[in-house]
Amino acid sequence: MTQQANETVPFVDLSIQWNQVHDEVMPDLEKLFKASAFCLGPWATAFETQVAEYLGVKHAIAVSSGSAALHVATIAAGIKRGDKVLVPAHTFIGTIWGLLYEGAIPVFCDVEEATGTIDLDDAERRIDDGVKAIIPVHLYGQPADVAKLMAFAERHGLTVIEDVAQAIGARYQGKALGTFGSMGCFSFYPGKNLGGAGEGGLVITNDDEKAAILRSLREHGQSRRYVHERIGYNYRMDGIQALVLGHKLKRLDDWTAQRKAIAARYAAALADTPLRLPAIVHGDHVYHLYVVRAERRDDLRAFLDERGVQTGLHYPVPLHQQPCLAEIVTPAADGYPVTTDWAENGLSLPMFAGMTAAQQDRVIDAVRSHFEGTRR
Ligand SMILES: *Cc1c(COP(=O)(O)O)cnc(C)c1O
Q: Taking each helix axis from N to C terminus, what angle separates 42-55 and 239-249, rounded to the nearest 10 degrees?
């Protein structure tokens, strides 16, 4: 065996992206430090302009994390204590922190079998007069059913806040995700498709009034300096993050194309295994995560781990079963069969821009030999 064949295939390796931007970022950082532009500042303003243009939206408001983005969007949407908001049961908990901070009540919906995104037929069953908004999650890098979602929201008069933390650059009928609802929220956590050198987030909107409120909320509730119009937060993006993200954004489409090529290889090489593979159902997929579903998932995971292939779980404990929500929502024991399927059987294979063909082969070979072994 060659040296390389023994090396672990990491679940994600961010050093490859860093190496590509290093020579541009370092001299620019030097300038940022000389200017002491640490909190928002000119690099953040430039990044906001760049990302707004990239996504085709009027306003981009840079904040300190994806969770902060969703929190200020919740407030800007006018969601108040006791209001109900439809959300998928199958997502990262960051989707709902903003609701919980504001005293709003998440109403969990089951998800689609094929995509893991919010099931709007289930949402239809759970809606009542107390529901004011819906937060669809474009999970794993693929769109929720946007056409059905927007028709549903219109019919019930709901505000739509899109959680695009995993799907920057993904499109639906030619338009960037995040531009369909009232606001779209992004995360630049390092492991996301566009990741900073630390925490970061963004809200986008075409609504001038909401943009002004969001800008105020992220900076101590200021309307102008020293005047605090509303209770605000310190949710500013670091200048350093904006600088790094600006350089990385120029390469995002290239990195996304690499993710799509890896996914195509996995799909071709694993098609005849018993796995359920990701399906493109709503038009696009930027493969933040490549999540397969397997019977006896934990056995497969242990086998891959033994073979030096790291995997992830997204997400093994559904939101309606999280301990912190025990007093807020009444768990419907068997009300989420599809969420349970994703939680119990989902397994995320290694997926990152810059992943080598040899690493992809290692993953494919390991998965295939697991099933060849179990068939005997
Ligand atoms: C990452 C993520 C968030 C939260 O973003 P942070 O930057 O980690 O606060 C919210 N929703 C989803 C679906 C995410 O994947």
A: 40
In ligand 1, the atom with minimum distance to the C-alpha of 201 is: 7
Residues 35 and 166 in one domain: yes
pLDDT at site 376: 44
For the question of residue 192 being annotated catalytic, the response is yes
Q: Name the residue among 79, 82, 96 with its Cα closest to residue 136.
A: 96
Q: Are residues 205 and 68 in the same domain?
A: yes
Helix or strand (DSSP H, E) at 183: strand 183-187
- Residue 199 CA: nearest ligand 1 atom is 7
Residues 216 and 273 in one domain: no
- The verdict on 87 and 178 lying in the same domain is yes
3-state secondary structure at position 240: helix
Whether 186 is in the pocket of ligand 1, judged by its Cβ within 6 Å, is: no
CATH of the domain at 294: 3.90.1150.10
- Nearest CA, atom 10, ligand 1: 94
- Range of the structural domain that residue 38 is part of: 17-249
pLDDT of residue 375: 54
Which residue is closest in CA terms to ligand 1's atom 2?
165
Does some domain include residue 101? yes
Whether 196 is in the pocket of ligand 1, judged by its Cβ within 6 Å, is no
The verdict on 229 and 95 lying in the same domain is yes
Tell me, what's the pLDDT at 331? 64
Using 50, 70 and 90 to split pLDDT, how confident is the model at 2? very low
Strand partners, 9: 309
- 193 and 261 both lie in a single domain: no
Q: Is 165 in the pocket of ligand 1 (CB under 6 A)?
A: yes
Residues with Cβ < 8 Å from 269, sequence gap 6 or more?
364, 368
* Distance of CA 297 from the midpoint of ligand 1 (Å): 24
Is 166 a pocket residue for ligand 1 (Cβ < 6 Å)?
Answer: yes
Of 80, 84, 148, 192, the active-site residue reads 192
pLDDT digits 0-9 by tens, 234-253: 999 999 999 999 999 999 99
Distance CA 318, CA 116 (A): 12
**Average pLDDT estimate for 293-313:** 98
Last residue of a domain, one of 227, 249, 271: 249
